[in-house]
Amino acid sequence: MSDRWKDPGVLRGAVSGAEAFSLPAADATAGSFEVEYVVTGVGVSEISYATGPGDAGEVVVEGPRLPWRTTVRMTGAEAVPVLSVMLSEDGGRIESVIRVDGLEAMRSTASGASGTSVCVAEPGGAW
Questions:
Q1: Cα 120 to the chain's mean position, in Å?
Q2: What is the model's pTM?
Q3: CB count, 10 Å around CB of 78?
């Protein structure tokens, strides 16, 4: 195999002859972490956020009062912090933030009539 096709460590096994493919975030023994969701601005119609893995771990808040924030504890490699904010038909402007264990993991903004902001914090990210 030429040096051109050797795995430089970035592909983690996707190239033949390299080490087995694995990602730390996929570790089934992953521990728990604290997630803080924050929304500031005006004109929010609905906020939804993840509280754990799968669809069962979702909470929807209609007509929230801003600024809005909540904190949840998530556990396991399949738990992905997600925050979705929908603006009203009259419009508005918001900023959404996800913090994981106190560190900012994702930030998003939205404006205008029925605008939407979606934040997804990468599992196992370097928060």
A1: 2
A2: 0.74
A3: 15
